[in-house]
């Protein structure tokens, strides 16, 4: 193997180990210092991926697999030479084989149709394959809980849905919408787009493997940093907010007998949870309005629930004859004191008091 590596020096990239930190703050403070190295106290395991133009999936996959106990501090070898790849401990996004028993995680071969399951049907990329087999371990370590803890499994699904699945879909050329119409605008701000821009430019004078390695290292840093930020957000914000929204949904009929108005008792992200919890809790009829206090000015808001998480359209917008009005004029038209505003689209309105906001929601239900 040593002879092969020496012979292929101009075509093989070596990225040596980094040590994932046990908590988010320490991890994020050291991620920019991940460097190429040729020194190691003991021979590291070796992970293969292809050289040349890189994509988000293998950059993220290489980062994630390095967070596991089995491949902690692993060396990454970038090559397409099958003889070299066959000697390595794991191979991602190259080699034409998917076999978790031998740590082979490619998705380009004919007939490949692996999905995560558990309700997800998107074809996996190399990142999704690593996540499928190691995601539970990675998340459990990140939040310092046992792998069997229910919060770990909730986060496993949430992080896939809100981060990894998009990487899988984009790499496999899966459109977000079933339509033959061209998009209304260009979106080059996705993680996959930003990773792609880290590749060497065609006009760069230095196209050496060393420069390519440095670019791939930056890609790993970018993908890995955002992946860990995603876990951090879902563990520290999303999961606690889910519990708040669940409790508020369970007690919604105490607010209004219709069951279509919910009082959010604590300021937290609630929009995504509504749709998932309505299914889980078999909410019928579905929610139309959420009332909450704006902590910035102590006034109250009544917000119409959207038809879906990625749509601006409301299930039942506030009445059309209220929209665009403010203060006393709005209060006079609505017949409700203390009104502050209603947005021109009718998705949100405001009142000085909780009672006023509730009255606006109730009147909107009947409009």
UniProtKB/TrEMBL annotation:
Position of the signal peptide: none
Source domain of life: Eukaryota
Pfam families the UniProt entry points to: MYG1_exonuc (PF03690)
One Gene Ontology term, aspect cellular component: nucleus
Transmembrane segments: none
Name of the protein: Metal-dependent protein hydrolase
Organism of origin: Lactuca saligna (Willowleaf lettuce)
